[in-house]
Amino acid sequence: MKPAKFDYHAPASVDEAVELLARYGGDAKVLAGGQSLVPLLNFRLARPAALVDVNRIAALSYVREVDGTVAFGAMTRQRTIEFSPVVASRLPLLREATRWVGHLPIRSRGTIGGSIAHADPSAEYPAVLTALGGEVEVQGPRGRRTVKAADLFETYLTTTLAPEELVVEVRLPAMPAGSGYAFEEFARRHGDFAIVGIAAMLVRDGARCTSARLAAAGAGPVPVRLRAAEEILERDGLGDAAIEAAAARAAELVAPDSDIHASAEYRRHLTSVLTGRALRRALKTPRP
Amino acid sequence: MDSATVKIDPLGRVIAILGTTPQGQGHQTIVSQIVASELGVEPRDVTVVDEMDTFTRVWSISSGTYSSRFGSVGTSAVALAARKLKSKLTEYAAHLMGVTPAEVEFRDGGVHRTSGKAAPYSIKDLAGRAHWNTESLPEGMEPALSATAVFGFTVAKADTYGFIAEVMAVEVDPDTAAITIVKYVTVHDAGTIINPMIVEGQIYGGALHGLGGALYEELAYDDDGQFLSGTFMDYLVPTASEAPDIDIAHVVSPSPLTTLGSKGLGESSSMTVPAVIANAVSDALKPLGIGITELPMTPSRLHALIKNARKTR
Amino acid sequence: MNDVALRLTVNGQPREGRCAPRKLLVDFLREDLALTGTHVGCEHGICGACTILVNGEAARSCLMLAVQADGAELVTIEGLMRDGVLHPLQEAFREHHGLQCGFCTPGMLMTALDLLHVKPEPTEADVREGLSAVLCRCTGYHGILKAVQAAAPRMVTAAHQGRNA
Prior knowledge:
The complex is a heterotrimer of chains A (288), B (313) and C (165). Chain A is an alpha+beta fold and 288 residues long. Chain A folds into three domains: 7-54, Uridine Diphospho-n-acetylenolpyruvylglucosamine Reductase, domain 2 (2-Layer Sandwich), CATH 3.30.43; 61-171, Uridine Diphospho-n-acetylenolpyruvylglucosamine Reductase, domain 3; 180-284, Enolase-like, domain 1 (2-Layer Sandwich). Chain A is built from eleven helices and 14 strands. In chain A, a hairpin with a 2-residue loop joins β6 (135-140) and β7. Chain B has two domains: 2-151, 2-Layer Sandwich (Aldehyde Oxidoreductase, domain 4), CATH 3.30.365; 163-312, 2-Layer Sandwich (Aldehyde Oxidoreductase, domain 4), CATH 3.30.365. Chain B is built from six helices and ten strands. The model of chain B has no long low-confidence stretch (mean pLDDT 94). Chain A binds chain C through residues 1-8, 10, 31, 34-35, 38-39, 41-43, 51, 53, 55, 79, 83, 102-106, 108-109, 189-191, and chain C through 1, 4, 20-24, 27, 43-45, 48, 51, 54, 57-60, 62-65, 67-68, 111, 114-115, 118, 128-130, 132-133.
């Protein structure tokens, strides 16, 4: 099928984009990479009055490291992230997760801001943002504000952002040097959305775990930070028993639904299995 | 039944016209190969018209490219038409040489005297003469260098069926219920193998269809009859990452019923893979008393079976 | 909404056209520029048949609006063969039986081209992962995998010699 008619705007600045979004008052959609929106348009599952195409806003495309934080322009392509030296050295977890995002031709177009704003709970980037405790900078008619990962995702495909707000930047704290990491995912085929995915980061001081970060994708209406599982590791260290306890706890922290690909029970079970696998691999995969 | 016409134009070009249409099964390759081998020319010298129109072709109910029939039925018609034309060329050349057909032989793209030093007639030479000078044809011979053959046999006969035996080894991850194919061997008896590369292409393709049906592809409906797998996001077609390595071997027992001894092959492993993988998974899960009776074996379903079996043991 | 005008470069040639903003890039290529080598498959970005190069990177032309390609440089399947000589990838597909019905072939070739630009010496696993972006229902991928692996060193050689790669 083909998209229904819409007004098309390709603003050159963020101000102009926000103004357009405000003018249509919720009837416009932001066109970022288009890898999720255009299928919805083609199937006419989405019939917005207007598209605000932000691909011409050059100022939204960058990767910068400032004071221990890596900032991404919202329109930075997943492909750019995949091959970014800054990401490879400061955020290898994000790099690893990127390899699970669709396929290379999808990543050529898909953007970090678009993936996060789309808020698909089985997508990889929202889980990484949640695990690392990142934040997004959004601009609306009343100016800019910062939204923390924990406050961003409301439910399936829904964020707390207002329709006239635009994600302009995504910020992730650089992973501490020497931290272990892993992104484990189980999908039915290569390149599919995760049935469940687990983002993990571990900071160690000898045998102690000074900080653990865990988040699950695909295990509920939003990405889930597995804080109670993290606490087990921070309290009991990284021995087999602690990892098993954390993995078991992880399954209790999620509220998955059933769909055509997997039952809720299976997703819950996978959350535990993949948490264990991610933690064991994270022990062997230190950040450079 | 299938029909085929092989003809030679005034310039000596060989053209084969089929009564079937391929969708990528390699009709052009195979037909040019068969005709070239019958007439002693190169495959590139044979033009294959692989299209069909029921108004212009010899055709009947059982014609077509389906049910693995081109490799047995279609190729037989092609070989028979080429042979008919070859015998016409032979008879014509013998007439031009003033000898009986028994005193000449068809080889290397021309007709030669079996003894003596008389110059041979090439196909090109014969084509020019037959088209431009119809008086040179022997009495009673139809003009034009063209032959059509129709080949058929009773569909219900099993004598041209291909045969398959397969062995598969799998591992089932008890934690995720993921299935890994460790080894997969498939042995086919397709009778005479006309083109090994195309045969293998059909086997690889058929096997992946089978794998899709066994593990991924499902026309799923909810309890209200709502169709749930109407996009490729939900109807999962296996990709290159899911395609297993396959060890292929052949046993060749030519069919006595087809012209070249070839038998059906095309959809072969698409039928066997669902059975062999379900049997392999059942074997792997035998200690739990699980037998697979439903496809596709999705990890979620398999997990439920494993969990249930562990509970009741 | 009114038609929009666009100018772009396709296979090295400047092209222009006018179309509705909702027209998909793949339909613009096929209907307005008569470049029907790019196939329209699923129209939701899964099958990969419509893959082309946009500014040197493989992308689904069913998931882009034509107007988004204004000013872009595109390469479609028609741009692979030069001066009557098949591209090394095309030659390898032919040699290794990399296509049967041919529907996925343009997408496979453009995806493989991008893959080999990013990874000139891929492992078999790399090729499988890269080509999992495109669905094929005929070949079981075997001939395609062999073809791409065979083409890789030839493309490296051709690039060194300044030939079509």
